[in-house]
Amino acid sequence: KISLFLPLKECLPQNKTDFEELVKVSVGDLPLVDCQYSPDGLKLLIRLADTVTRIQLEGLRPDMQAMLNVDQTNIKGIIITVKSLDEKYDFYSRYFAPWWGNPEDHVTGAAHTVLVPYWSRQLRKKIMNAYQCSLRGGDLTV
Questions:
Q1: Could you tell me which residues come within 8 angstroms of residue 14 by beta carbon, excluding any fewer than 6 positions away?
Q2: pLDDT tens per residue, the chain (142 residues)?
Q3: Where are the alpha helices (DSSP H) in the chain?
Q4: Residues 6+ away with beta carbon under 8 Å from 40
Q5: For residues 129 and 89, is the Cβ–Cβ distance under 8 A?
Q6: Rounded Cα distance, 38 and 80, in Å
């Protein structure tokens, strides 16, 4: 078990059409309900619809080269998240950062600095259980 104390980074609601290309190469045709941007972390948070399952999230295979080819300078990481339908977890996530030479971070504190304030507001909870759905994966209590 590892404990980290990291600063929280707020995100701001965005019009998903402003990031349409990045959203498309990241989640394909899966439905989304929210798109937010963290200027402090340069991260785009994409929340998928509550009907999207963990298996669908795990099955995503974003095109890293297509992400790099999108004309933008304000995004250096993409967080994809969905509310959990499982009692064990509150939410699931994946984090992609090809701009830093890291296609997918297995379990990242940096993404959770954005996810924690977002999901805390959405779920009205201060302590949550999360799972990062990378190939290696990891449980987090945040």
A1: 35, 36, 37, 44
A2: 666 566 778 888 898 888 999 999 999 999 999 999 999 889 999 999 999 999 999 999 999 999 999 977 789 999 999 999 999 999 999 999 999 888 887 777 789 889 999 999 999 999 999 998 877 777 777 7
A3: 20-27, 54-58, 64-69, 109-123
A4: 9, 10
A5: yes
A6: 13
Most distant CA pair in the chain, distance: 40
CA separation for the pair 110, 134 (Å, rounded): 15
Phi, psi of 97, rounded to the nearest 5 degrees:
-145, 60
Could you tell me which residues come within 8 angstroms of residue 118 by beta carbon, excluding any fewer than 6 positions away? 11, 36, 45, 47, 81
Structure tokens at 124: 């009205």
The answer to whether the beta carbons of residues 133 and 93 sit under 8 Å apart is yes
Residues 77, 37 contacting (CB under 8 angstroms): no
Beta-carbon contacts of residue 1 (< 8 Å; ≥ 6 apart): none
CA gap 9, 116 in Å, rounded: 9
Enter the DSSP assignment of 90. Answer: S
Q: Which two tokens stand for residue 99?
A: 């701009």
